[in-house]
Amino acid sequence: MASKRKQVEPKIVKASGIDPKRRPKEAPDGLYDPANPGHRWDRPLQAPGRMQVDFEERVDFRRLHEYRLARTRKALAGSGLGALLVFDQYNIRYISSTVIGEWARDKLIRYGLLTGNGEPYVWDFGSAARHHRLYCPWLPTNHWRAGNPGMRGAIHPRVGLFEAAAKEIKAILVEEGVADMPLGVDIVEPLFLFALQKLGIEVRDCQQTMLDAREIKSHDEITLLNIAAAMGDGVYQDIFEALKPGIRENEIVAMATKRLYEMGSDCVEAINAIAGERCSPHPHNFTDRMIRPGDQAYFDIIQTYMGYKTCYYRTFTVGSATDAQHDAYRKAREWMDSAIDSLKPGVSTDRVVQAFPKAQEIGFETEMAAFGLNFCHGLGLGLHERPLISRLNSFKDPYELKAGMVFAVETFCPAQDGISAARIEEEVVLTPEGAKVITLFPAQELPIANEY
Predict the structure, then answer these.
(1) In terms of pTM, does the model score above 0.90?
(2) pLDDT score recorded for residue 450
(3) Does a structural domain hold residue 74?
């Protein structure tokens, strides 16, 4: 007769087990430091299949969890804050390695807390908290909690949800010995902020602290970003083949979205599709406009794989291209290549930005009006992380590039015909030797789809 297996109790953290004078160690032992990104610069950047297998190492998700939490702890330790209260979905995922999908993005209903002395807490939407207790064993079971501060006002503030949540947070801060230190908050509803302040909690910004933590990507993060880029490569082949007179912008968007979800995308945030007379100025959206012979058309694939983003522009012409379209593309490519050539660890961002044209060179009166057309922006769980390099900000606030940063480089050049324009974007990983491009659909010369 088989012996009866002893039931294992779930891990629960009790107040009596917390020593407020001791911060958790950066590493569980002397052999492995989770704050070490584990880069393998001597090897090609990895873009394996999307399945997990037992015969080769691909993405180690537990290692990814430990790295992100260790980076956050390190940033928190140097911030002067006692704890981080985060509502930004990217920050919640970075700290807790949990997500409940695109639905939660704009609700401000999920939030997380990390003190300098404890493990992360997550307040989630009803039954999602119970689900995490069952399937997310990397945090104590009593750190997953149901929460609801009002669904952005849908539940009236007089119900008292903000005050109740603030008291719960204050109790944890007291329990973990950091109630007398400032609390960092990234984004928050005003009434939640007021409720915290009413309890005597000093609130400061922590978005900069979290961006510090997320700045350097680990080997696993770079692998996920590279897989996401490879998915974009495949979709651009589909777009290139589909670009024929008669197809509409929205049909391209539908096709690309379907293909990305088939490939395993978590969320297709946006597919920009712009063609013909809509190309200049850039409208940043798509319509039902029908593609015509000779049109210039550009697209942007913004999607996530395991949380990690792409931002990936390509420009085509349909059937044939004019001299004006070729000239605009050559200029956009020259600016792109000049910027990429300048990207090296130790280089200051005010040096890189000199590769981009001034606003007036592309027909805009100010750098604010031209923002987002010729610039760099960090990629990770968020679409816009560090570094963000543009003429709007980089001369005023330069900082040094570091190996392990991943970002997108974007250029835009309007054509002399007044309607066409070239838009190119490359995603790059900053290695010790310089920038390694991971968006591989050909873009050195203007691609002509279904050439006549």
Answers:
(1) yes
(2) 95
(3) yes
